[in-house]
Amino acid sequence: MTLVAVILTFNEERHLARCVESLKGLASEVVVADCYSTDTTLEIARNRGARVIQHAWVNYATQFNWALTQLDADTDWVLRIDADEVLTPELVEEIMLCLPSIAPEIDGVYCSRRMTFQGRVIRHGGVFPIRVLRLFRYGRGQCENRWMDEHIKVSGPTIDLQGEIIDDNLHSLTWWTGKHNRYASREAVDLLNLEYHFMPHDSVASLRGGNQAGVKRWLKEVVYSRLPGGFRAFAYFFYRYVVRLGFLDGQAGMAFHFLQGFWYRYLVDAKVAEVKRYMSESKKDVVGAIQDVLDIQI
After folding, report:
1. Are 23 and 38 found together in one domain?
2. What is d(CA 151, CA 55) in angstroms, rounded to the nearest whole number?
3. CA distance 257 to 263
4. What angle do CA 206, 209, 215 make, to 5 degrees?
5. 39-66: pLDDT as tens digits
6. I need a labelling partner for 54 at 20 to 30 A (CA). Which of 35, 155, 269, 277 fits?
7. What tens digit of pLDDT does each residue of 216-243 get?
8. Pairing of strands 108-117, 158-167
9. Would you say the pTM of this structure is higher than 0.85?
10. Are residues 149 and 184 in the same domain?
11. In a shared domain, residues 33 and 81
12. In CATH, what number is assigned to the domain containing residue 44?
């Protein structure tokens, strides 16, 4: 039974070796789908036995779904993992034990993702346990066609494992805020699409089956997106930091919940407002405004 791990990279020399090492003994092959890194990412990948493929970046979903088309036809399972993530030894052992006996009708496997920020594990605020579908049968799953917050979607039944993926980015706070500034532009595109319908709407949103990702996406698209811009960012931060006890994460947790739970969400709303203002002033349509304001080609 073959399990292929797919890692998307761009200048991931700080994280890649650690990620690949965590897959040892589990992955039949590691495929690094790179968008023309300029550091030592490719050298690290090849030195650790990974197969490197390269493709120009559009967004995460497009890159990942393209990578799926490059896998061998006899692949049985695909594992999606980011370069700054690692599988715990417990999850590796759990996958190795259960995979051969999974019923043929099962399409995907959920596990938990635990986040760190500034060297501290974030335990509160509703960000753990986050259940993520990262392992799926080849040919039965693909990434949602979205600009931000993409999930793997499958049509058949899924099962749950207890092991964890650890999201542990080692870059500086300056890098982190720059990344989230870019993320905010991409998430603004998805919010604008809910209103203007300029591209297909691909979503795992669902209240059926109790799937965490589906419920959260439904709340985001049906409830959160209809709240007033700006106010919803504050309401979400209050929910995370007070209601879900984010304040128990200490000083690092305060920075994380404020930046990721309020600043980032407010920035998304500000960018949505900026695009709409530009549309009114320039008389351009939403696609043209997104290109001019956010520098994103739809």
Report:
1. yes
2. 21
3. 9
4. 35
5. 999 999 999 999 999 999 999 999 999 9
6. 155
7. 888 998 999 999 999 999 999 999 999 9
8. parallel
9. yes
10. no
11. yes
12. 3.90.550.10
